[in-house]
Every structure is written in C-alpha cells, then in structure tokens.
User: What shape does this take?
Amino acid sequence: MFHNAFFESLSHWKSSDALLTEQFRTLRPQVPTMYLAIVINMAFLAIVSAPDVGNAVFITPALISLVILGRMVGLWKSRDAIATVAQMRTSMNVTLAAASIVAIGLVVWTEIIQRSGVEARTYVALFTALCTISTAVCLSSLPLAACIVIAFGTFPISLSLIMTGDVMLASMGANILMIAPLVVRKIYGQHQRLQRDVESRSVIAAEKRKVSELAYRDALTGLANRRAFLDEVARMSSLHPQRALAMGMIDLDGFKVINDTYGHHTGDALLVETGRRFQQLDIGDAFVARLGGDEFAVLLRDVATLEDAQARFAQLAAAFDQPFIVGAQTFRLRASIGMAHDVSPAETSLALINRADLAMYEAKRVRSTAICLFTPDMEAMNRRRLLVEQALAAPAESDLIVLHYQPVVDSATDRIIAFEALARWTHPTLGVITPSEFIPLAEQAGMTRSMTLHLLSMALTAASSWPDAIGLSFNLSGAELNSPTIAKQILKVLHDHGFDPGRLSIEVTETALLGDFTAARSALSTLQRGGVRILLDDFGAGYASIGYLRELHFDGIKLDGSLIASLMESPSARDLLVGVLHLCKAIGAPVTAEMVESAAQHDLLRTLGVQKLQGYFLSRPLTTEQARLACDREHPDVLPVESSVVLFNARAPRRLG
Assistant: This one.
C-alpha cells in the first residue's frame, strides 16, 4: 500500500490544480539555487580532475551549463508573468526533462572521471553526495524529478565504487546507497505534508466561499441578497462614476395577504417563482436581488437612455402577466415598480436607492400603472407619508377618521335610494388626509381589519336612522377581501346592530380581486348567502373586469368615472358606454354611474337607461346629520347652501346655491 501511494504521489500529472499551483509556487524560487549548486559542484570536480583526465573534462560541464543557462533565461523572461495552470504544468514538465538530461549527463561524466584513477574517485563520491542531495532538496516540490536525480546520481556511482574492491571506496558507495532511500523517504514525507496542507487550505477556501455565498445570496430564490445588492451599487458608483445607472425597486401587491392567509409555504413558492421569472428575463446587463420579504431590486448597469430603462422595466412588469399556480390554487400578483434614473455622476448610490424606493411607494399608491418614475416632488410626498403613518399609530388622532355619505339616486324618480359611506380624516396639523393616502398605509401596518369593522359599525349606526328603503354602500379593500374571516365578521357586525343585510351593499374593485381570487370569491359568496349585496366598483378602469363578470355574480355594477367624464364631448365614449350598458343588461346587473357632474350628463345617462346616478352634480358627500336630514322629506330646506347638495324630490333635482 505504501509503495502504491508513494509512486502515485511522485507524478505531478495527476495533481489537482490547487496542488500543482502550490508545487509551482514553491519550486520556482528553488530552481536557480539548484542550478547554481550543480554548476559550482561541476566546476570544482572538473578542476580537481583535470590533471588526471585532461582539459576534456570541462566539455560536459560546459554543455550542461548551456542547458542550465537556457532554463535560467526562460525563467528570467517569465519572472513577472502570471502563469495559468496549463502553463505551470508545462513548465514543470520542462523542469523534469531538464533534470533528467542533467542527471544522465552527470552520470556519464562522473563515470568517465571515476575510471581515470583512484584519487579522482574520492572526489567523485563527494561530488555525487553533495550534488545529489542539494539538487533533490531543491526539487522536493517536484518529487518525481527529485527521485530521478537521486536514482541517476547515487545508484550507478555507488555500484561502481562498491565493485572497485577497495574497502574505502566500497564503504563510500555503500554509504551513499544507504543514504539515498532515506532522502527519498524524506522528500516523500514533505510532499505528503504539502498535499495535506493544500487539501486543508482547499477545504477552508471552499467553506469560505460557501459562507460568502450564504452571505451574499438569498437562500430562497437564489438571487443576490440585500448585502450583495448594496455592495454592487457601491462598486458601480465608485468604479464607473460616469456611467448612467437605472435603479428599480419592486414590491408585490397582494403578497402579504396571500402569505398571511395560506401560510409561508405558499408565500415562499410565490417568491421562488418570481425569482425564476426574473432570472429568465433578457434585460441586458442587470443585477437582480431580493431585498427581503416581497421586495426585489434591479440595477441596470448599461443604460443608454431613459426610454431604454423604461422598456426594460416594462419587461419586468410583464413577468406578472401570467397567473401563479401553487398546488391547486391560482394567484394573480401585480408588481409596483419604482424607477430612478441616474443622469448625474454626482448622485450617490444611497440617493438612487432612496429615490427608487419613493417611486415604488408612489406606484403602489396610484395603482394606475405598474412603473412609476421618480420625480422631485415625491420627496415632499414621502415626508407627508411618514407623518400620516405616525398619525395612524396614535389612537387619539386616528379616531378623528369619520364617515361622510354620498347619495345614490334612482335616475327615473330622482329619489335617494342609497348612500355610499366615504371615510374622511381631517388632521389638526396635516389637514385633509384622503383615503388614498391613509388606507394603503393602514394596510401595510396591518390596521385595516380593526379600521374596517369600526367604520362599518359607525356606518350601520348612521344608517339605522334612515328609512328602511334607503341602503348603505360600504367599500372593502383588497387586504380585507382576501381574508378568510372577514365575511363572517361583517355578518356578525350586521347581526349585532340588528341591521337588515339586504340594505347593505359591499363595493369591491377589480384591483381588490387581483390578490387571491379564490379567497375573494369565497368571501363574496359568504356575504351574498348572508343577504348582503355585492357591487363591482370602478368597472371599466382595468382590463380584467369582463373576466370577473363571468366568474362572479354581482348584484350591481358601478361604472368608473373615466367612462362618464368625456361622455358629452366624445361620440366614441358614448358608443363605448352603450356597449357596456348592453353587457351589464345581458348579465342582469343594475348599473350605477359615478362622477355625474353636469345636468347634460345626468339627462343623457337617464336617456341611455342607467338606473342609478351618483356624483357632485347630485350631491357632495354629506355629514351624518346632513344625510339624515336629506332622508327626511319633511325638512328639505335645512340643508346648508354652502354644502352644494341637491334638494331631492319626486320630480327633478334642483341645485341649491
């Protein structure tokens, strides 16, 4: 076993790249020393042997010195070069060949000298011992070459000395012959230690790479993590300060609700699929990372123009066009992408990240587009957003949120048939805070559940004072719609107030249905079985509404204001509205037109057969007391003129003021 391991260890051809590199590193500085030792030994032996052998004794040292000189010149020329593994292997092969040539040459030469006389043989033995040992020590990193030198440098001369019959010379030969295996064993041991050291360093290096991989790689998605992303942004900013960069921050809308409802296993599967889709995109020189949770980041490193960056981010947004399938569940996610384009080399990497982050929050707020480009006014908006967040966290201030009620009228009789409850918040220092401001922040903070049930309770209390014929419409956010318990909680609040479920209409937008469609359908079905009416709000604002009409049964459709705004000026808008009305009629869903702001719109919508109308032309949202009085036919004149509400009667609306 020892012999097999020994002979396998001699060959550098089977050495690993790491071992070969270490052999080359330790051997290279020893080669000049080895060659110098050989030349010195040859020179002194030639000088001592010249009287017996003649000047011809210098021929062999001269030839060997030429070979050595050629090797030294080659080493000098490549002294600063960084050798590849292949070049190292070639260089060591050349060293092996040169050592073999020199060893054979020395054997022939010393044999000639030895035969010249007894006196010369003593010097040959000394030369052989010194030259062989010094050369073998220098070649210990290349054990095969060292063994070749020892074999040629000791065995022939030792046998020759033993066979002379001279006791002293034979003893010298035997001595050399006994020392040679010990030197070989020593070289073998050194090489074994070198192998173990290299293997140990390789294991340590592999562990370090693994640790580094864990430190810079997201274990779930395989993408780079936050630390790697920040380092890459800093590196690009410092190494290429003149290169324009584009930064994108990406947040998955609806992910939190799905993760909370279906568990982390489902959430993790969605994140893994998102990472896979990102990795498959061809968006040029891009660095994609998962920062944490459902937030991703993209750094575009070769941006030519702003339009180029926008086109590539549009590809990222398109990655969410197809639904996500996890087991038996199908989910639709939407990405809110904030984009910042660095056109100034003076911009810091941190500033670019912050701006992309602000743009992402704006994209989540407006919801009308997946990609939002940073603009300077977003910084002021962000400061306000932080103040609103702080106000929401203060119970005393968030209690200032109240409800106003906007009338919905029957277009045929102009009578109030329902009120839509609208949240209003007037802060002592921040002024009016719109629902579009505080509701998304409440969703992020996980406050919508308590806020929804509290506001619903307020609305039911107010509606209890209205005539039974007048209904209440209440908006439900996507965050709550996807909850498996919200429907039962709403029905419980209705029961606690003794409120007829048939008078309550829950309004949902198609955006609210984008998260977990299965959970949303279950919640809406539970509410309908409990007697609550379900209205699809903002119909026509998005691309998916028709699909929802096919999948779900709605008790009514509320047209988005964009379909009404250009009704009087655009014939095509009227044609489109007529088509939508035919569609709603085909599915048996009554239609409500929102944002009715002129008498002309009012009359045209009535003519087209829209059953219900709502808008500022009819009435602005009313306070609780104003809504109660508006329901009271006995006291129509108590409504304040400055509120711009309409006095309703059985015939026609009449604007006050």
About this structure: DSSP finds 25 helices and 18 strands in the chain. The longest strand covers residues 416-427.
